[in-house]
């Protein structure tokens, strides 16, 4: 089976969040199920620097007004199709925003171009010639690629089955109606059954409307987004499409994330040598300028945003210090939240520290050396850092929502007795409940036998892609069968 995956970020080429991890790892895991994936992604400067010896597979004189080539290249086991269009993608800043954090002014055109290229390839644009290729299925990720099925729906060529995956429904790609004439879609596409959304154009909405199937990244989130609280305006459409909505939990790349072989950590270890983690713990404390004692070391590896519940943690940091714990925060985001953590660090020197940067290797060391990772998200489609935590014996302290709910087993009396507990979870998500969860975590830490048992249980959990890749392969197969029927 041949699949075209379309994503705006793919690890290890470019990453701003979990989407990149998924887009980079799922194709590798699908190989085991006889599924070959080519991944179409934008040629940002960072991506263009990494690809050498690429072949031009297709050229557009005008793709939504700009010249573009589709380059094919293999990179670390991934078959990549790179949309090389300097007008759209060769510019400073990140994939979505400039260096000041302001969205690129033409994101609507950049990602419509990505989607249109994806639709053209899906419908046979690269099928000619000796090395001609056409996918059986298209799998698109988030709003940046969600217009692929819409472009296919309104093209002359026959559609092929599509799957739209929602990694975070908070990001919807909503634009004004004034962009519609430039999207190169027929006038009737601007309707309730097409791309129209609250009077404007909605990219994710268009994908949810026209995609053959929809998935999101955990079973709990698949249920939550049917409610107004989590659906963020799309709950009605999703309820209408409920029969085609699936929840498949993300896995992680257990080759890259392996404490026994990880080169980014100070000392490698396994579940049988957990004491070795102490070396990593010292290294984390040193990197953050924290004091060293025998108390628990908590960490945060996250965007500092309201979604991630970071305001709640900022309120609770004083409690952590009182409990004899330390906290290392890695991440940046909202200025006010960054300032709150800086203020806490200034108030509790040696006990709380924050590094407002993005540092992939340091994130590995923190998982390998911290005792627990705090994830108090208000909503969390899947979440990856708790999965890394489980794999590294870094106990997740999580809000009971979305994928966090599906992957962490709370240390309740029953779970502790049955030795199934892998973390601490709390809900509803309030500062008070977070405080209680942190207190509970510290109490558990003070009982090394219980703590070690939880670490070992977490390290035993299956967080690989194996099972989930199988579920995606099955979903693809069902979609193909639907095409034939
Ligand atoms: P989201 O995609 O909503 O940001 P996820 O938990 O799904 O959240 O994925 C976040 C990914 O980004 C994880 O791989 C996490 O380790 C990584 N990450 C987040 N912040 C940082 C940071 N400051 N430095 C390094 N890695 C980070």
From TrEMBL:
Keywords: Glycogen biosynthesis, Glycosyltransferase, Transferase
Any one GO molecular-function label of the UniProt entry: alpha-1,4-glucan glucosyltransferase (ADP-glucose donor) activity
Domain of life per record: Bacteria
Domain Starch synthase catalytic: 2-239
EC number: 2.4.1.21
Residues in Glycosyl transferase family domain copies: 290-439
Binding site for ADP-alpha-D-glucose: 15
Similarity comment: Belongs to the glycosyltransferase 1 family. Bacterial/plant glycogen synthase subfamily.
HAMAP family: Glycogen_synth
PANTHER family associated with the record: ALPHA AMYLASE DOMAIN-CONTAINING PROTEIN, GRANULE-BOUND STARCH SYNTHASE 1, CHLOROPLASTIC/AMYLOPLASTIC
Protein name as annotated: Glycogen synthase
Gene designation per UniProt: glgA
């Amino acid at each position: 089976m041949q699949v075209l995956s379309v994503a705006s970020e793919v690890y290890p080429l470019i990453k701003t969040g979990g989407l990149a991890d998924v887009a980079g790892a799922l194709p590798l895991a699908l190989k085991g199920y006889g599924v070959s994936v080519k991944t179409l992604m934008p040629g940002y400067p960072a991506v263009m620097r990494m690809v050498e010896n690429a072949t031009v597979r297709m050229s557009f004189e005008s793709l939504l007004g700009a010249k573009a080539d589709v380059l094919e290249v293999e990179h670390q086991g991934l078959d990549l199709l790179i949309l090389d269009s300097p007008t759209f993608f060769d510019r400073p800043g990140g994939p979505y925003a400039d260096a000041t954090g302001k969205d690129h002014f033409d994101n609507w055109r950049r990602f419509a171009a990505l989607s249109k290229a994806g639709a053209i390839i899906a419908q046979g644009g690269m099928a000619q010639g000796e090395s001609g290729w056409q996918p059986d299925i298209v799998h698109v990720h988030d709003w940046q690629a969600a217009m692929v099925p819409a472009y296919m729906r309104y093209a002359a060529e026959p559609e092929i089955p599509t799957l739209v995956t929602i990694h975070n429904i908070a990001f919807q790609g909503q634009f004004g109606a004034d962009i519609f004439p430039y999207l190169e879609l027929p006038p009737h596409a601007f309707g309730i059954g097409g791309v129209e959304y609250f009077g404007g154009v909605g990219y994710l909405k268009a994908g949810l409307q026209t995609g053959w199937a929809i998935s999101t990244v955990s079973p709990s989130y698949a249920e939550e987004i049917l409610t107004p609280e989590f659906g963020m305006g799309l709950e009605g459409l999703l309820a209408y499409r409920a029969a085609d909505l699936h929840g498949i939990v993300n896995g992680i790349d257990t080759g890259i994330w392996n404490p026994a072989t990880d080169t980014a950590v100070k000392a490698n270890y396994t579940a049988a040598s957990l004491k070795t983690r102490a070396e990593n713990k010292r290294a984390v404390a040193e990197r953050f300028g924290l004091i060293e004692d025998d108390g628990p070391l908590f960490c945060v590896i996250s965007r500092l945003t309201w979604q991630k519940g970071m305001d709640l943690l900022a309120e609770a940091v004083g409690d952590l210090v009182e409990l004899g714990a330390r906290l290392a925060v890695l991440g940046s985001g909202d200025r006010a939240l960054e300032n709150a953590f800086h203020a806490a660090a200034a108030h509790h020197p040696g006990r709380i520290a924050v590094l407002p940067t993005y540092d992939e290797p340091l994130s590995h060391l923190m998982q390998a050396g911290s005792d627990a990772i705090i994830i108090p998200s208000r909503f969390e489609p899947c979440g990856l850092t708790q999965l890394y935590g489980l794999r590294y014996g870094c106990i997740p302290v999580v809000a009971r929502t979305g994928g966090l709910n599906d992957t962490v087993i709370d240390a309740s009396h029953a779970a502790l007795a049955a030795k199934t507990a892998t973390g601490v979870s709390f809900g509803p998500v309030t500062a008070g409940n977070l405080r209680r969860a942190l207190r509970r975590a510290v109490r558990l830490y003070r009982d090394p036998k219980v703590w070690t048992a939880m670490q070992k249980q977490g390290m035993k959990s299956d967080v690989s892609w194996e099972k989930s890749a199988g579920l995606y392969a099955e979903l693809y197969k069902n979609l193909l069968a639907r095409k034939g029927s």
